[in-house]
Design brief:
The structure is a homodimer.
Chain A: H1 2-10, H2 14-25, H3 50-53, E1 74-82, H4 88-106, E2 127-132, H5 134-139, E3 170-176, H6 179-192, E4 197-206, H7 239-242, E5 259-268, H8 270-273, H9 278-285, H10 322-325, E6 336-337, E7 340-344, E8 353-362, H11 365-368, H12 370-378, E9 386-396, H13 408-411
Antiparallel strand pairs in A: 1-3, 1-4, 2-3, 5-8, 5-9, 6-8, 7-8
Helix pairs in contact in A: 4-6
Chain lengths: ~400, ~400
């Protein structure tokens, strides 16, 4: 038993492990893994590390998962085009299939017609989030219920959009702490609708996750920056910034408890970024690289002092620094960021491409996100090293209860 | 404290966690994470989950890491072509750079000229393994020391090789339990030699890893099969199957303590595979899908009874089943498998591509691996659903001590 205690110390204290996980998952009332190792299913069952592999995010509820959920380590975003002739009944069929399979897969059970059921046994906090592009409302003859804001973002001067990374009639956001889990879920959900919809694009992403750093640590992007410090308190006072209300801007009520998903694919120009020294990089962002603290502060979550000047009278935080330009004085111009890194390998003579799958959720992207993107497009030192190459907007329906399907309030 | 105990139970018992990790890492004398959370560096420091993020595989030693190392969750294989005019001194320069940076990165420290040092703080069992293709010996004028077996594998009838996935003068195998760690190490090591060598191909792979299943669990491929059950005991009686000896076949001694690395990229035809029912799939492989047990046995590691017949007198394990065809009666025809899944996303109208980065290590690939590949090419039920599309062979030098560089016994 002395051995056990020593191991506990080496591994950082299991009380904290359980505490951090329990607290984080409580956001969606997630289930802790079974206390009886023998009762856990499949290859992960009873494993010493089953705490990560067997953790479950509850599927049913007022909101969909994968939004307020503490970000998992892996992301796959799959956008689809409906095939010609798709109708409201096509969409109901897709929604019934996806809802049923997502409910199964997220609890570590195989899809209804899963041909590789053994790959479904490690849920690893899997979430499946469904969203609708403008084409859904057209196909279903439901234009009157389309949220006013559901359209491509307006063009920004910094955009260099590639059609292959834009748009889509439907989207699935699939996240988990294990890549095998994500790959399996993508395959099941794509395969089940292949007679009804065709994949338009897939974006995969990663961040450090369960097992390698403390939950709640702000991610770093591949520029090395702490990225995503400022977030609205969507579980508290800012709840209205995330979830749509019943008003007409959201399509006459069906979207209440839903939200919008904006995906921007942002290429990072790492080779030229790497030519900057550290003080110059810190000027660009207005935060210290080491810990993400504002240049006027000492800790990551300190508020920046945008009025502070140095001994020469110049602003400590540059007038065009990203930290300054990305914030508005209007409290409504904020949104939940849930981005991931991407890193496409270099090939023969072709350099690699790295960047951010910049994912945001907000009740109304036109009111909350677009003004900030416009400010940044107009002036942001970071623009020299960031290039938006993809853009898409989706309406994300609320969650559902057992027996219902996602989007029943729209299509039903 | 009652809370702590309950959490311990929920999370499977931390004694086991430490025990499994400690045992596995002992294979290369790995260091457990610091018992003092405050002393761990960077963003992973002191995190409750730091056990995975801060685990270190020792770089220096008689053999390189990433070979006998318990497989990490993520793989990147990067093959390079030397630029025209490369010489022995070019190779020494590359080896000095890679050795120095690999020693740093694997212990969670930044590379020598690392421009994103904050991304280096989570080693997550990072290993960097260097290998040489035939071109190295040509460029260095050292053909006399080239191992006899170092050449492309002979063509097999099942091959449908694509040039873009074949060959290479140099290779880096980079593995860790965290994708940010892998992406950062790839970038540092590629960037440091970009004036000297150009990337030829990159293959990324994944398997379930630390955090989602017990260490030592045999992986499943994306067909859902338990894949890689039979392995030589390379830490025991079969040590000679892995590490090269001093004989002339290995290039007159410099490779002693090294090995060979063979990479086969094998596409899986999942769409047609999914049309088979489970009994048919089990016949193809000769193992049960549920647990990987031979059709004549009850547990994964049971020896198959190749003589067993059913009540009709037919063999229980088909004469062309993969399990039968992949084993030889000659004990020398075995090798260490260390493969990973790959899964390339589908695009507009283009189906996705999934498969295996089939990675093997063996003292002599011509003696140990080629006969088995030949047997499988001649007859293996699995061939209908597997297509080799890439192939490469590398000589992997032994490890080195501090102050030395990898390959010093060859180039020095």
């Amino acid at each position: 038993m002395a051995e056990v205690s020593r191991r506990s110390a080496l591994f950082g204290g299991v009380g904290l492990v359980g505490g951090a996980l329990g607290g984080a998952l409580a956001m969606r009332g997630a289930q802790a893994p079974s206390p009886d190792p023998g009762s856990a299913p499949g290859e992960g069952g009873g494993a010493p590390w089953a705490g990560v592999g067997q953790a479950v995010e509850t599927f049913y509820g007022a909101n969909q998962g994968g939004i307020a959920t503490v970000p998992q380590a892996r992301l796959a975003l799959v956008a689809f085009d409906l095939l010609a002739g798709a109708s409201r009944s096509t969409l109901v069929r897709i929604m019934r299939i996806w809802t049923d399979d997502a409910a199964r897969l997220t609890r570590g059970a195989p899809g209804l017609t899963d041909t590789e059921p053994e790959l479904a046994t490690v849920p690893a906090r899997l979430t499946v989030t469904v969203g609708y592009g403008p084409g859904v409302f057209e196909a279903a003859g439901l234009q009157a219920r389309r949220p006013e804001w559901l359209a491509p973002l307006p063009p920004f001067s910094v955009d260099r959009l590639e059609e292959g990374w834009c748009g889509g009639d439907l989207v699935l956001q699939i996240c988990a702490d294990d890549e095998v889990t994500v790959a399996h879920a993508v395959r099941v959900l794509v395969k089940e609708v292949r007679e009804l919809a065709q994949v338009r694009w897939v974006q995969r992403g990663f961040r450090r996750g369960m097992g390698t750093q403390a939950l709640g640590t702000t991610m770093r992007n591949l520029m090395g920056q702490v990225d995503g410090t400022v977030q609205p308190d969507v579980a508290g006072v800012d709840v209205g910034l995330l979830w749509a209300g019943p008003g007409p801007r959201s399509g006459t009520g069906w979207l209440e408890g839903g939200t919008s998903l904006v995906v921007r694919r942002i290429r990072l120009e790492l080779d030229t970024w790497d030519e900057l020294d550290r003080p110059a990089r810190e000027q660009v962002v207005g935060r210290r690289l080491a810990d993400g603290a504002p240049l006027t502060g000492t800790a990551e979550h300190d508020d920046p002092d945008l009025e502070a000047v140095n001994t020469l009278g110049f602003p400590v935080i540059d007038v065009a620094a990203h930290i300054r330009r990305s914030r508005s004085e209007k409290p409504g111009e904020r949104f939940l960021r849930r981005g991931y890194n991407y890193d496409e390998p270099p090939g023969a003579g072709v350099p690699g491409s790295s960047g951010l799958v910049f994912v945001t959720f907000q009740a109304d992207p036109v009111a909350q996100l677009v003004p900030i993107q416009q400010r940044l497009a107009e002036m942001d030192l970071l623009n020299t090293w960031t290039t938006p190459i993809g853009s898409a907007v989706f309406a994300v329906p609320p969650g559902c209860q057992e027996g219902e399907y996602l989007g029943h309030g729209l299509f039903g």
